[in-house]
Design a protein that fits this description.
The structure holds three protein chains of three kinds. Chain A is built from nine helices and 21 strands. Chain A is of the alpha/beta class. Chain A folds into two domains: 2-273, no CATH class; 380-435, no CATH class. In chain A, the strands form two sheets. In chain A, strands 1, 4, 5, 7, 8, 10, 12, 14, 16, 18 and 20 form an eleven-stranded mixed beta sheet that branches. Helices cover 22% and strands 34% of the residues of chain B. Chain B contains ten helices and 23 strands. Chain B has helices spanning 37-46, 51-67, 109-118, 147-153, 160-166, 168-174, 185-193, 434-442, 447-463, 468-482, and strands at 28-30, 92-94, 131-137, 140-144, 156-159, 198-202, 211-217, 228-233, 238-246, 253-256, 259-264, 269-276, 288-299, 305-312, 317-320, 323-326, 332-341, 346-355, 361-370, 375-384, 392-401, 407-416, 422-431. Chain B starts with 27 loop residues before the first strand and ends in a 5-residue tail after the last helix. By secondary structure, chain C is an alpha/beta fold. Chain C has a single domain (6-259), classed as P-loop containing nucleotide triphosphate hydrolases (Rossmann fold). Chain C is built from eight helices and twelve strands. In chain C, helix 5 packs parallel to helix 6. Chain C is globular. The chains are: A alpha/beta, B alpha/beta, C alpha/beta.
Chain lengths: 435, 487, 260
């Protein structure tokens, strides 16, 4: 933990400066988080640390970062970096700072507030940090101490207008900077909402995006959550998603990872009400020297719930992808129906995938299954297509597109799906397969 | 003799569940408790070991001391109080002379009777047909049957302490070559203090004419058992090896930290089967064996094959991952496992398949059964290294829960570094289905028997990998271990 | 026919599943040698009746009684009922992965024999018996080597049920929709098996939606079950009448009776 102790002095100063500018309500919370952050540091030690078994946090932890500040940028640059539609409620953050001029007016239906203000109901304050337990996680503690701007989205009971809230966290890539985006979503009874989180940008030098999102899925409500990560290879991106689903609630997550030097998404879903369900699907494509780690936990606490965890990866170059999926079914969670699967297509002899789809079961009347596959494009399939006159390159591309398309096709927001097809599929390789 | 039971037997001891829990009345030669360099030297001297082996033990001991108790693995899904390694007896031997007996005539008759009671008759006229048995009591091998037949075939099967004397070059060449002394905490401990175990060498082209078996028994209170087994199948040879284990019922825990090394050279095949039935502790989780074992095979030569089959019903805690390093091109590794835990037992078991050579193939089929308040974890690693072109793995893990106070866990680690690999992992968790139970009951079969039939069916794919006699035994063990889990 | 002994008597039987009453007071007597058919539309409770007699868990008997060979069955475990001669041919025979058919059948037959104070069959005796009965239902010899019902076709599963009927030779055979999903050849084979089983000492209760099977196995009595009650009983002609006019006819005519 030496690394973090030496840099903590600088961070302590930054912290004090920051606290002076932020509303009073958050100071107790921040101070506590800062204390923990200083105590535990960042998880650079891997021996015996199952959470960080296949990803070294050391390259992320070693540089000393200063807090990112806003620099001039035009809206078109941002629009090019992330999906955008004028019918959506677009909220733009640049280097972690809220940009009102780029953002849509607040919708009358759903209140979207900035976390660095105090124009939201006091009960919301209780929810911040309510499900993000940072007691053993330095990155999350760091975010909790330093969070400034971010979105608080509260969906009223019965709200069903189908509004799409598009949060864009644009990182300008100012060398040696860190930003700590924070999101809170609470959905009221029988409501539904669509939230897209975009982590995009980056530069030619090391920057770190360290985000935390907390999502409370209310009774009988549905939250459709999309997460896009597409940053330069010099960006480190560590993100936390913490979700708690109430009785009869549904949480649908679609996560797409196209880039960052080292990326990690730690998603933890508490299925905490009867008849609740979650459907977590993801697609990661890594190339060059990229490293992507999806670390996902589903915790079944109540009976009669369902979960589906379905991730797919395509690996090229010298990249490495890590999938750590855990489904925990507690004693009370009888009649749980859970499926977990991680499928990988490895396109390069230098790529590596490490997959750990684990199951921990304490209830006897459950249906739980998991599976994982890794391998190249199926030679028989290619041959079948070629025998019908399709050339090798087209055949390969069709197979890769088909593999990725299985996740993209499930995106229900049409404009977003179109964006992903364009931005994601066209970036996929379609070459060099020798059979 | 053909229907002679190998392991399970009625003994008259009053315990319906664990029928091997009696203490043998054997006088023993015991080292003082605790571990230090003197104890290591004492063990080595007792065995009249050559200098190189003592040096190797001492290296292991120093490594073990240097790394400290913190080096004990903590990642396994098991909980237990810390072991006081100074409160263990590291050497205990039946008092029938310092050396292992040269022939059965020299074996203490009381000892023969004792093994008879365990169901392992060693005398010529009673011995198990078709199985050569090496009986290991506490730290020492007491007898090996069928020596003549083995000698004729050129197969060496003897206590490893004897092999050190008679075939030092073979032992020196292979000992620690698969599991180095620095491998892990318990393997390091074993390397320092290992007492005895079996040694087997099958010369080129020889198909071992009979099954080889080692029967392990912990008897002395507070003693640990640290046996070391080394099996070498030279080019084009075949051997099938079985091991069975029991221990007396005791209130305190006993440590068993064995190391097994297998080496299969070109075109050779080793089939290694285990029925592990160490004392599991009582209904309240008191006592029982801590079974922390390192088993690994090197499929070193082209077309070699190593197959592990294990039926694990005993021990308070099981920590073992019989593994295969698939070094030779076209080599094959297999792991078939049934792990059943009941009451307060905990098992964290599985395998590692490390694919190094081209066209290597591994199969993992693991069945876990949890009952009572027990915890059962399958932990398995499949690594496909960059050079392992066209490697194939298939893994299937099925768990069965009986009751809602137990746990069944599956933790696979899949590491693929070669795009031509094909690997698939499947796992399911279920319980004995009420409809299945009713169907059997409707045909007149009682609940307990119905439950047993379904679970035996669940395990059938594994049992069929065992030699016939062992398969019968495995079914019996399963039945005994399942007693009282339904109704 | 009524001179023979009463084998089973169902008295004002009321059965619920999770608070919902399925059977609302059933009265039915079957004497030795009789063949009864229970017909009714889907959801009328006819399968429930057969399953409750066999003792399937999950049903609660809230009233009435089932008396078999002079004794109440309600507190009796299913395997004891089976050993005392009650056989249920399942509508959906259960698959038992890894449990060999051969082993299963021998365990079942030995359980019954033990109950009757007889010795277990030797392997040879059992094989002879199995061979004889297997021919009766024209079952593929390979199937008895496989896991029970696993990967069997619908027809093979039903034939396996009749094979078990022939082997276990019970006093009362409950056939729960045994005809459903069978083609005409399989129906003929299955019916033949049941007809061979029939004797002056043996009784059969056929639960069916269609009249079709009754062309092959002639019932002495036909009962129509609607909404948990037997609304009409008659001889085999009733089945034909039902086939012709449909269940709506019974419903309507019952409605009339209730209203008048």
């Amino acid at each position: 933990m030496q690394d973090t102790i030496t840099i903590a002095d600088q961070y302590q100063e930054d912290f004090q400066d920051l606290c002076a500018t932020l509303p009073e309500w958050s100071s107790e919370f921040r101070n506590e988080a800062m204390l923990i952050f200083k105590q535990i540091g960042l998880p650079v030690h891997r021996k015996g640390n199952e959470k960080w078994k296949y990803t070294s946090a050391r390259p992320i932890a070693e540089p000393q970062y200063s807090l990112a500040t806003f620099e001039e940028v035009d809206l078109d640059t941002i629009k090019k970096a992330a999906p955008w539609h004028d019918s959506w409620l677009n909220v733009v953050f640049v280097n972690g700072q809220y940009q009102g001029t780029f953002s849509s007016d607040t919708s009358p239906a759903i209140q979207v507030s900035n976390i660095a203000s105090d124009d939201f109901p006091q009960d919301i304050v209780e929810s911040i940090g309510g499900i993000m337990d940072y007691s053993d996680d330095g990155f999350a503690a760091w975010n909790s101490a330093f969070m400034s701007d971010g979105s608080i989205i509260s969906v009223p009971d019965g709200e069903n207008s189908g509004l799409v809230i598009n949060l864009i966290f644009f990182n300008q890539g100012v060398p040696g900077t860190v930003n700590h985006p924070r999101v809170l979503v609470t959905s009221g009874k029988k409501s539904s909402v669509n939230v897209i989180e975009n982590y995009v940008g980056g530069g030619e030098d090391n920057t770190l995006t360290n985000s935390v999102s907390e999502i409370y899925v209310g009774e009988g409500s549905t939250v459709n959550h999309y997460r896009l990560m597409s940053e330069t290879d010099h960006t480190y991106d560590v993100g936390y998603g913490r979700v708690k689903i109430g009785t009869g609630g549904r949480f649908n997550s679609r996560a797409f990872f196209r880039g960052s030097g080292i990326g990690r998404y730690d998603l933890n879903v508490l299925v905490d009400g009867e008849n609740a369900s979650c459907d977590l699907q993801g697609l990661y494509f890594t190339s060059g020297n990229q490293h992507m780690d999806n670390f996902i936990n589903i915790d079944h606490l109540k009976p009669h719930c369902q979960s589906n965890l379905f991730y797919k990866g395509i690996l090229d170059g010298k990249s490495r992808a890590v999938f750590g999926g855990t489904v925990l079914v507690r004693k009370e969670a009888q009649k749980t129906d859970s499926i977990q699967s991680d499928k990988n297509l490895i396109l390069s002899p230098d790529a590596e995938v490490d997959s750990k789809p684990a199951l921990f079961i304490y209830a006897d009347d459950v249906k739980c299954a998991h599976g994982a596959t890794a391998g190249n494009i199926d030679a028989d399939t290619v041959f079948y297509m070629r025998s019908r006159g399709v050339d090798l390159e087209t055949a390969s591309r069709l197979i890769i597109y088909g593999f990725a398309g299985e996740v993209i096709d499930k995106v229900e927001i049409e404009e977003l799906r179109a964006y992903l097809e364009e931005a994601f599929l066209t970036s996929l390789p379609s070459h060099r397969f020798e059979f | 003799m053909a229907d002679q039971k190998v392991i399970s037997r009625q003994t008259g001891v009053e315990d319906s569940q664990y029928k091997w829990g009696f203490e043998l009345d054997i006088e023993s030669d015991v080292a003082p408790k605790g571990l230090n360099e003197d104890i290591v030297r004492f063990i080595s001297a007792k065995k009249k070991e050559p200098e190189w082996l003592l040096e190797w033990r001492l290296k292991a001991f120093r490594h073990w001391t240097d790394q400290g108790d913190e080096a004990a693995p903590k990642w396994a899904q098991v909980n237990f109080e810390e072991i006081d390694f100074q409160d263990i007896i590291y050497y205990a031997a039946p008092k029938s002379g310092d050396d292992a007996p040269k022939s059965l005539d020299e074996v203490d008759p009381e000892l023969l009777e004792a093994f008879d009671k365990l169901g392992i008759p060693l005398e010529e006229q009673k011995k198990l047909s078709g199985v050569a048995v090496d009986a290991v009591l506490d730290s020492v091998s007491v007898a090996t049957t069928y020596q003549d037949m083995l000698k004729e075939a050129g197969v060496i099967f003897c206590p490893i302490s004897e092999a050190v004397q008679k075939y030092p070059e073979l032992v020196q060449k292979y000992l620690g070559s698969v599991v180095p002394y620095s491998d892990n905490f318990y393997a390091t401990l074993n390397s320092a203090v290992f007492s005895d175990g079996s040694f087997c060498y099958v010369p080129p082209g020889v198909r071992c004419p009979i099954e080889l078996m080692t029967y392990f028994r912990i008897n002395v209170a507070d003693s640990g058992q640290f046996e070391r087994t080394l099996i070498i199948a030279d080019e084009g040879s075949y051997v099938s090896y079985l091991e069975g284990c029991t221990a007396p019922m005791r209130k305190s825990h006993q440590l068993h930290a064995a190391v097994v090394e297998l080496v299969a050279l070109k075109d050779a095949e080793i089939k290694y089967s285990t029925l592990q039935n160490w004392y599991p502790g009582d209904k309240n989780g008191e006592g029982g064996v801590f079974n922390f074992v390192t088993k690994r095979g090197a499929a070193r030569g082209e077309n070699s094959k190593i197959s592990w089959t294990q039926v694990e019903t005993g021990s308070a805690i099981t920590w073992k991952y019989p593994s295969v390093i698939l070094q030779g091109d076209n080599s094959v590794g297999e792991f078939y496992s049934v792990a059943l835990v009941n009451n307060y037992q905990q098992a964290d078991t599985g395998t590692k398949m490390i694919h190094v050579g081209k066209n290597t193939k591994s199969t993992i089929i693991a069945k876990g059964i949890s009952a009572g308040k027990a915890e059962n974890t399958y932990r398995g690693q499949v690594s496909i290294l960059p050079g392992a072109d066209n490697a194939r793995n298939f893994t299937q893990c099925d768990s069965l829960l009986i009751g809602d106070e137990c746990g069944a866990h599956t933790v696979p680690y899949i590491e693929v570094r070669n795009p031509t690999a094909q690997m698939g992992h499947e796992a399911t968790t279920s319980k004995v289905n009420d409809d299945q139970l009713f169907y059997l009951q409707q045909r007149g079969i009682d609940l307990e028997e119905s439950n047993y039939m379904i679970i035996n069916g669940f395990c059938r794919g594994i049992f069929k990998e065992l030699p016939f006699e062992f398969a019968m035994e495995a079914s019996q063990l399963l039945r005994v271990s399942l007693e009282g889990t339904v109704g | 026919m009524s001179k023979s002994d009463k084998l089973i008597e169902v008295k004002d039987l009321r059965v619920s599943v999770e608070e919902t009453e399925i059977l609302k007071g059933i009265n039915l007597s079957i004497h030795e040698g009789e063949v009864h058919a229970i017909m009714g539309p889907n959801g009328s409770g006819k399968s429930t009746l057969a399953n409750v007699i066999a003792g399937r868990p999950g049903y609660s008997v809230t009233g009435g009684d089932i008396v078999y060979k002079g004794q109440s069955l309600l507190e009796v475990e299913p395997e004891i009922r089976a050993r005392s001669g009650i056989f249920l041919a399942f509508q959906y025979p259960v698959e038992l992965p890894g449990v060999r058919t051969w082993q299963f059948l021998k365990s079942a037959i030995d359980a019954v024999r033990k109950e009757n104070g007889e010795d277990e069959l030797s392997v040879r005796e059992f094989d002879q018996l199995l061979e004889e009965k297997r021919n009766l239902v024209e079952m593929d010899p390979d199937l008895v080597k496989r896991s029970v019902n696993e990967g069997f076709s619908g027809g093979e599963k039903k034939r396996n049920e009749i094979l078990q009927l022939a082997l276990l030779d019970p006093s009362l055979a409950l056939l729960d929709e045994t005809d459903s999903g069978l083609d005409i050849d399989a129906l003929r084979i299955v019916s033949h098996g049941v007809n061979v089983f029939k004797s002056p000492e043996k009784s059969v209760l056929i639960v069916t939606h269609y009249q079709r099977i009754l062309d092959y196995i002639t019932p002495d009595f036909v009962h129509v079950l609607v909404d948990g009650r037997i609304v009409r009983s008659g001889d085999s002609k009733l089945a034909l009448e039902l086939e012709e006019k449909g269940y709506e006819w019974v419903r309507e005519s019952v409605g009339e009776e209730v209203n008048s």
